[in-house]
C-alpha cells in the first residue's frame, strides 16, 4: 500500500525524523491558508500523487513550457495561482504512464536552502531477509539512471534484523555520502530513526530522494516515498486510514474486497489462475506466444465459488480484455468449485470475448464436465502451452 508524500513525512516525524514544515491542501483556499501559516519567504507547491517524477511531469491541457508538478514560488498570491492551475488537472510523469493521474491534493511546504542532495532508501532484501540500505551522492535524480550510468556511485549494505542498527552502519552511510563531523553524526542518527520506522510500521520500501544538507549544515528529508507490506496492514489500522483509493485502479480495489491478488496491466488477455507462481508462468507463456497479459490475478489456493465469480467479473470489467485464459491446477482448490464459479460469473455478466479454460488436478474431470454441460462457448485446453496458444489465436481471429 502506498501513501502520499505529506503522509509519509508525518509518519517519519513520529520517529524524530527532521522534515521541512508543511501542510496538505485539498482546495485553493486551504493552500493559501497553509502558505499564510508557513509565513514564507519561499514556498514549494507539490502535487500529491502516487508516482515519482512529479517535478519533471507535465499537466494535460497546458503548453510545453508550463511548469511541472513541483513548483517553487515566493508569495502567497503565487501559491494561490499555482494551486488553481494544478488542482483537478491530470499530471503525466514517467511513472504514471500516458494516462497520468489527477491531482486532488497538494502539499504546501516551506522552501529549503539546499547545499547538497543525496539519495537514501531502505527496502527488504528477499535473498537475505535483511533490510537493505541504498545510498548515493547523486540525490534528486532517478536512481535507475544513476544505476545505469554511474553504478559505482551507489553503495548498498544490509542491516541484520537480529541486531538492528549499530554504530558501524552509521559510519558506512556517512562514508558513502562523504559526510564528516556533525553531519556524520546526524546521518547515523537519521539511519537509526528510519530503520526504527521501517520495522515498526512494516514498511516494504522507504525512499528519501533527495536527502539534503541545508545551508546551515542540517540534514533534512526533502522528499519521502513510503509503501507498506499489505500482508501486515491488519496490525496497523492507523496506516490503513491513510489509504487513498482515488489513486488506485477501481478493479484492484474491488479485488481487495474479496482477498484476490490482482494487478491491472496493459495487455489484451485476461488471466485467472490459482497460485502466484502459476499466474506468473501463465503471463510469461502468453508473452511467449506473442500477446500481452491484461492482468495478474491469483484467486488463491483456497478459492471458493464467490471468489471466482468476483474475479471473473473484475476481468470482464476491463475494456482492454479481448480474451480470457482460465488456468487452474487443482490442489487445495477443487476444479469443480472453480468451474462452477466461472459458469455462474459468465451467466451473470455475459461472455463477449473468447474464453479458454485449462483444468488439471483435483476433480479436474468433474470441472470439465461442468464447463462442457454449461452451454457456454468455451475452448478447452489440454495443458498450459495449448491454452496460451489457443487464446492468442482466438483473440487474433486465427482459431
From TrEMBL:
One of its GO terms (cellular component) is cytosol. GO terms for biological process: succinyl-CoA metabolic process; tricarboxylic acid cycle. Binds 1 Mg(2+) ion per subunit. ATP binds at residues 46, 53-55, 109, 112, 117. Residues 9-241 form the ATP-grasp domain. Its EC number is 6.2.1.5. Pathway: Carbohydrate metabolism; tricarboxylic acid cycle; succinate from succinyl-CoA (ligase route): step 1/1; One-carbon metabolism; formaldehyde assimilation via serine pathway. It catalyses: succinate + ATP + CoA = succinyl-CoA + ADP + phosphate; GTP + succinate + CoA = succinyl-CoA + GDP + phosphate; (S)-malate + ATP + CoA = (S)-malyl-CoA + ADP + phosphate. GO terms for molecular function: ATP binding; magnesium ion binding; malate-CoA ligase activity; succinate-CoA ligase (ADP-forming) activity; succinate-CoA ligase (GDP-forming) activity. Its cofactor is Mg(2+). It is an enzyme of class 6 (ligase). SUPFAM superfamilies: Glutathione synthetase ATP-binding domain-like (SSF56059), Succinyl-CoA synthetase domains (SSF52210). Gene3D superfamilies: ATP-grasp fold, A domain (3.30.1490.20), ATP-grasp fold, B domain (3.30.470.20), Succinyl-CoA synthetase domains (3.40.50.261). Substrate binds at residues 274, 331-333. Heterotetramer of two alpha and two beta subunits. NCBIfam families: PRK00696.1, sucCoAbeta. Belongs to the succinate/malate CoA ligase beta subunit family. Succinyl-CoA synthetase functions in the citric acid cycle (TCA), coupling the hydrolysis of succinyl-CoA to the synthesis of either ATP or GTP and thus represents the only step of substrate-level phosphorylation in the TCA. The beta subunit provides nucleotide specificity of the enzyme and binds the substrate succinate, while the binding sites for coenzyme A and phosphate are found in the alpha subunit. This is Succinate--CoA ligase [ADP-forming] subunit beta. It comes from Phenylobacterium parvum. The gene is sucC.
